[in-house]
Write a structure and sequence with these properties.
The chain is α+β, with helices and mostly antiparallel strands. The chain has 2 domains: 7-40 and 205-453, Creatinase/methionine aminopeptidase superfamily (Creatine Amidinohydrolase, Alpha-Beta Complex); 71-192, no CATH class. The chain has helices spanning 7-14, 24-27, 42-68, 137-151, 172-187, 194-202, 206-226, 239-252, 322-339, 348-361; strands at residues 72-78, 100-107, 114-118, 129-130, 156-158, 190-192, 262-266, 290-295, 298-299, 302-303, 306-312, 365-368, 370-373, 379-384, 405-416, 424-435, 440-442, 451-453. The protein has a 6-stranded mixed β-sheet with strand order 4-3-2-1-5-6. The model is unreliable at 1-33 (pLDDT under 50).
Length: 454
Amino acid sequence: MRKRLTGVMLAVAFAAGPVAGQEYGEFAQGREVPPPAAALAQRDRVGPINDMLERRLDELLPRLMRESGIDLWLVINREYAEDPAYLSLVPEPVFAARRTTMLLFYDRGEGGGVERLTVSRYPLGGLYEAAWQGGDLDEQWRRLAELVGERQPRRIGIDVSRDWAVADGLTAALHERLREALGPSLTERLVSAEELVIRWLESRTGDELAAYPGIVALARGVVTEAFSGRVITPGVTTTDDVAWFIRQRFAGLDLPAWFMPYVNLQRPEEECAPETPFCGTSGVIRPGDVLHTDVGICYLRLCTDTQEMGYVARPGEEEVPAGLRQALADGNRWQDLLTAEFRTGRAGNEILAATRAASEAAGLRASVYSHALGHFGHAPGPTIGMWDNQEPTPVQGDWRLHADTAYAIEGNVKVAVPEWEGRLVQIKLEQSAVFDGERVVYLAGRQTRWHFIR
């Protein structure tokens, strides 16, 4: 068994950057901006990723299979048509299925752990035992059927789902071939592994939670760098320039962005209507502008999602106008109202309704659209509102909250700004956090001060 992920390894991974829990807005008050932490080299990421995966397979998977009532789980996919769950199950440096790749997980019961087999032409390293040495495709399917038949599971989980894309990775052709190979008796035992897949993808282990703050800090550090005088020259730099700087900076740090960074601006003379979902335009950045960005990276197989706000100083200004400072404070107040409603076992729709009621009682014009984080940026878990639907979301919104799950605390408030003659500014915030079963903890702090660009 490989050595577990240690604090020393994590320190090496993130030692170059600011302390994860610090408020990055504090760094943005002047021109001096700390560089983002250095990411591990590609080769050096293999150990931490595989150590975290081994812990998940050894300790998390058995519990989740028993909770969901799955005795044997099959993950079957082909090159260029990978199951969404596949890359969360295989060790580095694997990053695609090869030919037809079959994974078999069999729960041997309490104390016996989960047997992990691969029925594939290419081996997958020490985390899986190879149960087939190669041959033609028909032989591969026969061998899979033999392995399943020898174990006689009561319920065989397969990745088919009507409502959750991440749990619908078994293609129609492979599903048909599987049924042919298993025969009538075993086919009758096939059930959707939907619950198991969602719980597997949404659950975070202690190792992952130890690594996550540094990953979020990497993303926030790039935002702080972008929203500074090093990058922005008022009257010259455009919002697109800043967005592409962020993307190029992530590429330079060897951090994959899972969507194109977004930067927009608001200014006093451009009305933000109460009914408009999102306020902001693109163009040349000028003094007095309010800036917003939305960025997300994935590193060590964990994804982030971050939105923060910046203000471009007018000549002679030494601080952000008081009305805008209050607007950001209102945004933080909205975050507090949302996270106070997190309770184990509560559905996303219930959290949404309670947060909306609390926001209205507090006099906040708020919109909520939070989602889970993990192996995907938009990960499975309870949906807590959507930007275009503040009413209950069927199915995904009915999913219930579990401990040790991560979320993007995402939404916005619209606040009247006295310095803008009472016109509205939209404060759009998003920070990565974990729910530990009792409280929500921001993984690398949250923005409580404006990025002040001068």
